[in-house]
Amino acid sequence: MKKMAIHIKRILFISLLVMGLGLWSAPSGQGAEVKELRIGIGIDADTLNPQEQTTTLIQNMCDLIYDTLFYQNPEAKLEPRLATRYEMSKDGLTYTIHLRKGVKFSDGTPCDAKAVKLTLDRALDPKMRVPLRFAIAVIKEVKVVDDHTIRLELKYPFAPLAATLSLTICSPISPAAIEKYGEGVREKPVGAGPYILKEWVKGDRIVMVRNENYYGKRPNVAQLTFKIIPDDATREAMLRTGQIDVCYKPLPSNVAALKADPKIRVDMPLDTRTIFMGLNCKKGVTQNKLVRQAFNYAVDKKAICKKILFDTAIPMEGPVSPILFGYHRMAHQYDYNPDKAKELLKKANFDFNQTVSMRTPQGRYLFDKQVSEAVQAYLQAIGVKAELRTYDWPTYIAGLLKPIEQSELEVFLLGWGPLILDADMGLYGQFHSSVNPPKGLGAAHYSNPVYDEAVEATRREQDPKKRLELFKKASEIVWDDCPWIWLHVEKFVIAYSSKVKGMVVTSTEKFYPTYVTMD
């Protein structure tokens, strides 16, 4: 507990230091205002309600409209935003959050303790669709202390709560907007962030303009235009010709050429995002653990990273990204071994006459369709008939959220990118039985009481060394059960004009153009 107290004091000191330096610090030598920054993205938003989010890119957009209570910077340190600091009780069951004074939503409504409580209460309400609720489900009650202070009463001590407060799910919505629009806030977002939604043309563009009443440093970019361009090659071509300034996730095969182009800059930090083939544990042939293990041996993950993704990813060697606290490389690896795969299928009495249904999105992840086609080919090489279908992202995500009796998923490509640098969001957020659809995003419908107990222990333990050991135990259980084909960890690839200076790019797959300048 003494170590924890020192850790908290360190966070508070950092917070106060950042407050003194100024919010969202702009790069030195800030240049002239940027009238418009054009950003090419591969998918449209399904909702701009921060509590209903499933997708990192759209959460990124929500951050720009709503802002967050805290911000976890690329060095994993917490910085103040709508909240300035917090205090934790000795028993770890109470957090007191101090909110920034004088902040208003873009509609003029005060962003105060009542507004934050309303948002958190809505996010905790089981009647509301909140796919990431597991992240804050530990909160038992939200209390208003005064206009600028709230108190969170927890069900049990939760080690990563402070970092969790930086998540988009905690971003407050204007109470006046909720009253006016109801569930229409999905399309009519009103927050306290640096930008305001100006226009949303479904399937074409999302346009944001500067919030002139933003509490922090005035944004340097007057307008952000997110242009929806599903085809990777088209996005890249538009960057090269100057039709857009930023290309979100260009073709992996062209990253080297983009890096060599003096007119383009490429950032690609190792990501928290793991890419996997989900294996439905409650339906179809993948209910059998031996089949799931066989499918893992059947796929050459190293070849996919090298030959398809051109080293914009690394093979998974544990159930979460290696940059997360709590990561362990597993002693046993599912190295490419088609003979072993065939042996396990024979042992499982696998029926080679049946067809396995595969699903993939296109334009959401790096070469997602191509990766799925490679997995299909590897399965076919060991005699498994596999039929692959491709869907746009909104349709795909809707299918993932169906309860098991309605689910058509058997083998499906998906990614999971924890937004805090702690393995809890990966191990609990995908594999605890409570996060299975429709309540959560654990689309593999994995359920193991022994695993549940192990991962729950990682949440309650406050000592970092003991947490690491508990994470190892939980990781070993799920790694052996194989609810996924463990594919790879992406690098977050984003390319933009070399004229753009000061772009903030994080390993949690977010980027912030608020204070960029252009030569």
Number of helices: 15
Just give the CATH class of the domain at 272-491: Alpha Beta
Question: Which residues form runs of ≥5 with pLDDT under 50?
Answer: 1-29
Shape: globular
Regarding quaternary structure, what we see is single chain
Strand percentage, roughly? 15-25%
Radius of gyration: 23 Å
- Please give the alpha-carbon distance between the first and last residues: 50 Å
CATH topology of the domain at 272-491: Dipeptide-binding Protein, domain 3
Q: State the CATH architecture of the domain at 272-491.
A: Roll
Q: SS-based structural class?
A: alpha+beta
Classified in CATH, the superfamily of the domain at 272-491 is Dipeptide-binding Protein, Domain 3
- Overall mean pLDDT score? 92
Helical content class: 25-40%
Strand order of the largest sheet: 8-9-10-1-11-19-12
Largest sheet: 7 strands, mixed
How many E-type strands? 23
